[in-house]
Amino acid sequence: MDLRFTEEQQMMRNMVRNFAKTEIEPFIPRMEAGEFPRELLHKMGELGLMGITVPTEYGGAGMDFVSYISAIHELSKVSAVVGVILSVHTSVGTNPILYFGNEEQKDRYLPKMASGEYLGAFCLTEASSGSDAGSLKTRAVNRGDHYVLNGSKMFITNGGEAEVYIVFASTDSSKGTYGISAFIVDKDAPGLSIGKDEQKMGLHGSRTVELSFDNCRVPVANRLGEEGEGFKIAMANLDVGRIGIAAQALGIAEASLEAATGYAQQRVQFGKPIAEQQGVGFKLADMATAAEAARLLVYRAAQLRAEELPCGKEASMAKLFASQAAVDNSIEAVQIFGGYGYTEEYPVERFFRDAKVTQIYEGTSEIQRIVISKHVLK
Ligand code: CAA
Questions:
Q1: Can you give the pLDDT at residue 4?
Q2: Ligand 1 atom having least distance to the Cα of 132
Q3: Which of the residues 296, 352, 356, 363 has the least number of beta carbons within 10 Å of its own beta carbon?
Q4: Residue 3's pLDDT is what?
Q5: How much of the chain is in helix, strand and coil states, percent to nearest 5?
Q6: How many beta carbons lie within 10 A of that of residue 292, not counting itself?
């Protein structure tokens, strides 16, 4: 397999790198203070980043999946917040409509999502159904030309900011996962309300909220696929979404390595740069190896997806490994920076806080192991 980028992919990477440096980096203090980076998303829409893989006929950039993953990777090296907002918007916000929507739904939503006018969110998790997603309790009852949804969702990334919510609800509780259906719910749907904002350890500036559906009316025309197809839609989109989160984790792992390497080369103790002390040099070697292995897994999964080949196992492996690399590298980066690493003056404490959730959302590391082991045992 050729892991070199094509000229077009390289141009995309350079453009994203430049954007991250000039536009996102200066915005970080505002995000750390809690501001959602809406103005950055508008600019990203103008650059075609909000609809990288959406076909041009629906207003997207019509680029390949590897380009999309490299964009998440490059953005996340500077800001994991912008990385996750784009990943959720694209992989699990827009793709369900692109791959499971009918023509009318695609025409109505995709151009606005690709331009950044509309932001997407994915609503599967509930207070009592996280890893066991199939046990969700939100109900949708068919009332002729519309459904009535009742229930609540939790930990919804982009919630409160998104205009489009992909919502999973049971239309027949006697059928378990086969009774789950998927709906496109507009922000202003009557009966949808935005609940509390979670105060998180990291990813400050990314919104994570509760949603409640109180007799929420959703037109039948907004159901994605057939009744009962919702769980498969959720799982298929998570297969792809997990590559995006793996790329986000890869960005954090590499950023931690780069920061630690730069610091270790200029910080002198005992008469020489600490990078030349074997204890620190070995840490950098392990961090570089973890980042490189994560990179190979992430781009291998992305390449499979780009070729429309099955990638569920590889996506889970990439997420499992890259998220561990992000956590390990960010911890070691803080250690190499010593006391300075524990202060907000340097970015490594942010990397450390942002890394942990990559082992939790879009399926915990334990869920990735379940998915991988099911493939291994097939
Ligand atoms: N693609 C298509 N269909 C799939 C599938 C996939 N990847 N995985 C499962 N299915 C189908 C199965 O084939 C099965 O149908 P058949 O019997 O016809 O074959 C059906 O779905 C049920 O599958 P399982 O019996 O495997 O289902 P399960 O209840 O045991 O759950 C699980 C499997 C993998 C543990 C799943 O519940 C899971 O992925 N849990 C984690 C949930 C998760 O990732 N949540 C993330 C929330 S979103 C988020 O975090 C976004 C964010 O904010 C950043």
A1: 85
A2: 37
A3: 296
A4: 76
A5: 60, 15, 25
A6: 15
Distance CA 162, CA 192 (A): 12
| Distance from residue 235's CA to the centre of ligand 1 (Å) | 4
Question: Which residue in this structure is represented by tokens 């190896």?
Answer: 289
Q: Is the Cβ–Cβ distance between 17 and 76 less than 8 Å?
A: no
* Ligand 1 atom with the shortest distance to the CA of 157: 53
Decide: helix, strand or coil at residue 323: helix
DSSP-derived secondary structure letter, 33: T
Angle at which helices 348-355 and 230-266 cross, to 10°: 160
Nearest residue to 247 via CA among 365, 78, 72, 87 = 72
126 CB burial (10 A radius; 0-12, 13-18, 19+): buried
Q: For position 2, what pLDDT does the model report?
A: 65
CA of 134 to the centre of ligand 1 (A): 7
Give the pLDDT score at 117: 96
CA-to-CA distance for 278 and 258, rounded, in angstroms? 18
For the CA of 360, the closest atom of ligand 1 is 50
User: Who lines ligand 1 at CB under 6 A?
Assistant: 88, 92, 122, 124-125, 131-134, 157, 177, 231-232, 235-236, 238-239, 312, 361-363, 367, 370-371
Radius of gyration of the chain (CA): 21
Q: Which residues are catalytic?
A: 362
Complex ipTM: 0.95
What are phi and psi for residue 185, nearest 5 degrees?
A: -115, 125
Residue 160 region, left (φ>0) first, then alpha (ψ -120 to 50), else beta?
left
The structure tokens listed for 278 are 């074997």
Which of 112, 111, 116 has the alpha carbon at shortest distance from 85?
116
Task: Point out the residues of the chain with pLDDT beneath 50.
Answer: none
pLDDT, residue 1, reads: 61
Distance 299 CA to ligand 1 centre (A): 23
- Which secondary structure element, helix H or strand E, spans residue 49, and what is its range? none
Helix (H/G/I), strand (E/B), else coil: 200? coil
Quote the tokens at residue 66: 């590897």
